[in-house]
């Protein structure tokens, strides 16, 4: 995303978080631009019954939680370290200044946000109307296209756990396990050494 040397030039600080540690909570005011150096971070919500819904998962070189920096609103979800991770934190004012001085990076951020909006629209439609098999395949195809940018069968190794797949699609983990086995039988997925390939 934003080159690390440029982030540092504008005052970003590299911060480490332990697995399970919160970077911020839903409802808090935004003060920083975040970009992952290493590890994984998820943005999530919990419903009234305590069930987790994962909004998205972010890995190395990906940024997250930018919209509230532009809209003057609070965070709509929590950010939690899935693994021990290292993250650049750039103060909001410095982030806006960086974008004003580097329009090409501003355009990259805009494209990233547009892609995420597209993903949210797809998943909202899937969760509201489609069966579990369709939800899972749609999510995996979206991830495959965004990561590998190709359609070669079984070239994409899914690095998400069954629980993470459930939390991303609004399904129960038992349903995800059953559906993955069913999709393998139908030739839609392959499973090798407990890893799923699409």
UniProtKB/TrEMBL annotation:
Residues 17-116 form the Cyclic nucleotide-binding domain. It comes from the Bacteria. GO terms for cellular component: cytosol. PROSITE patterns: CNMP_BINDING_3, HTH_CRP_2. Residues 130-198 form the HTH crp-type domain. PANTHER family: CRP FAMILY TRANSCRIPTIONAL REGULATORY PROTEIN, REGULATORY PROTEIN YEIL. This is cAMP-binding protein. The lineage of its organism: Bacteria, Pseudomonadati, Bacteroidota, Flavobacteriia, Flavobacteriales.
């Amino acid at each position: 995303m934003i080159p690390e040397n440029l982030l540092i030039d504008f005052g970003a600080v590299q911060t480490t978080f332990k697995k399970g540690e919160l970077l911020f909570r839903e409802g808090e005011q935004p003060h920083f631009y975040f970009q992952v150096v290493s590890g994984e971070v998820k943005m999530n919500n919990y419903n009234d019954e305590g069930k987790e819904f994962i909004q998205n998962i972010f890995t190395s070189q990906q940024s997250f939680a930018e919209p509230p920096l532009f809209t003057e609103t609070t965070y709509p979800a929590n950010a939690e370290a899935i693994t021990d991770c290292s993250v650049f934190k750039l103060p909001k004012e410095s982030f806006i200044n960086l974008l004003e001085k580097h329009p090409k990076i501003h355009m990259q951020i805009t494209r990233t946000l547009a892609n995420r909006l597209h993903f949210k629209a797809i998943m909202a439609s899937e969760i509201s109307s489609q069966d579990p098999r369709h939800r899972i395949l749609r999510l995996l195809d979206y991830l495959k296209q965004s990561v590998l940018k190709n359609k070669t069968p079984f070239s994409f190794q899914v690095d998400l756990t069954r629980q993470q797949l459930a939390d991303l699609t609004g399904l129960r983990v038992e349903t995800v396990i059953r559906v993955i086995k069913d999709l393998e039988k139908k030739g839609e997925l392959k499973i090798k050494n407990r890893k799923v390939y699409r």
